[in-house]
Amino acid sequence: MDAPALFAAGAATGLLAGVTSCTAVQLALLAGAVRGERRPTRPVAAFLAARLAVHACLGAVLGMAGGAVQPGPRTRGVLLCLAAAALLLFALDLLGFRPVRRLLPRRLGGCRGAAVSDDVPLHGGEGRCHALTATSPSSTSCRPVAVRDAAPSDVASAPSGRRRGAVRPAALGAATVLLPCGLTLSAELLAVTSRSPVGGAAVMAGFAVGGAPVFGLVGAAAGRLRGRLAPVAAVALLAVAGWTLLAGLRLGGWLPADGGGGTAAADAAAVRRDASGTQIVTVWALDRGYRPAVLTARAGVHTVLVLRTRGTHGHTRVFTIPSRNVDLVLPVDGETRVDLGTPRPGRLRFVCASGHYPGSITFR
User: Fold this and answer.
1) Which position among 101, 211, 302, 348 has the lowest Cβ density within 10 Å, counted as fewest Cβ atoms?
2) Residue ranges of the EfeO-type cupredoxin-like domain (predicted)?
3) Any idea what the CATH number is for the domain that residue 341 is in?
4) Domain range holding 143?
């Protein structure tokens, strides 16, 4: 496929993701970008611009190096855990936790936590300033500040203040790449298979552009709610942080064992012996998870894992074995065989590329 066709494919995927999974996953980040803003146009634009830039760069790297560039599951697990920590910080900031507020950037203005309004006179007089909810979601005004004759350097610093005000939404927009939904993974797979930096960038740029209209509308609505949205956004961020942390722990293989095994019916249907005595374990990779997800097999027997797909397009196409630091990209339709050797007693965990759909094979 050429670059325009790849861009169109990415845009179609991005539009679908915008109205379904991606907006739901990344809504809390978008709400954090526009909170406290009387006019959400600027922060939404910074959020979307950073999201577009980061996705395009990621696509170029994926296309240039193909599948070899993708970090291993444990590296992705560490990144997701760090992303969860960042989301927790933003949630605590929205809830007014003072120690966290000192760590996060603030817009500078005529008074602490406020921006001087556009109609402040530059030569004498009393300036009006409007409090931003970055300091307190419930604040609506602050004490008037006298504005003295402005020096040229003071006037020149105004654009710099606006740039500082865009740092937070831009950082949050860039952070969306750390919270991929299933359709994001599909776009990334398409970028990898393009094996071209231009093609990969076209796919991911199209993905970001396709989702931009929905993100823009949601951001504008969130901006109008301002302070009333802060507690809701904080709760959503806490939920997403926990979900992200769980995905990271799954990818790293760091969750404690639960001790459960597969049911007799699932084992009978999915585990068998062939004529040579090799143990065959069959798992279906579906868009909504692996079936069966929990199995029990015999240890000490040469084992082959058979992964089957049928019209599978989600992130379950990337089958991850954390203990072996292995990612397997499965075809949309077909069968992939993985030689597991002769497993010892224990549990072999597997999970999709984003850490959302786990499974395991217990060898006894």
Assistant:
1) 302
2) 272-360
3) 2.60.40.420
4) 114-160
Angle at 77 between CA 73 and CA 322, to 5 degrees: 40
What residue type is 53 in one-letter code? A
- Do residues 280 and 239 both lie within one domain? no
Asked if 75 and 252 touch (Cβ cutoff 8 Å), the reply is no
Position 108 in a domain: no
Tens of pLDDT along 25-78? 677 777 777 776 677 788 888 889 999 999 999 999 888 876 555 667 888 788
Is the pTM higher than 0.70? The answer reads: no
Residue 262 contacts residue 94 (beta carbons within 8 Å): no
Tokens of 303: 């084992």
Residue-level pLDDT at 284? 97
Tens of pLDDT along 300-344?
Answer: 999 999 999 998 877 788 899 999 988 888 998 999 999 999 999
Q: How many residues does the chain have?
A: 364
Task: Give the number of other CB atoms < 10 A from CB of residue 112.
Answer: 12
Q: What percent of the chain has pLDDT over 70?
A: 73
Question: Under 8 Å CB-to-CB from 118, ≥6 apart: which residues?
Answer: none
Q: What is the rounded CA–CA span in Å between residue 305 and residue 340?
A: 7
Do residues 325 and 73 make contact, with C-beta atoms less than 8 angstroms apart? yes
Using the predicted structure, report yes or no on whether residue 239 has a pLDDT greater than 70.
yes
* Total domains in the fold of the chain: 3
Short-list 287, 337, 296, 342, CA closest to 316: 287
33 and 165 Cβ atoms separated by less than 8 Å: no
Q: How far apart are CA 297 and CA 348, in angstroms?
A: 10
Radius of gyration of the chain (CA): 25
Backbone angles phi, psi at 166, to 5 degrees: -90, -5
Same domain membership, residue 188 and residue 50 = yes
Peptide bond into 358 cis (omega under 30): no
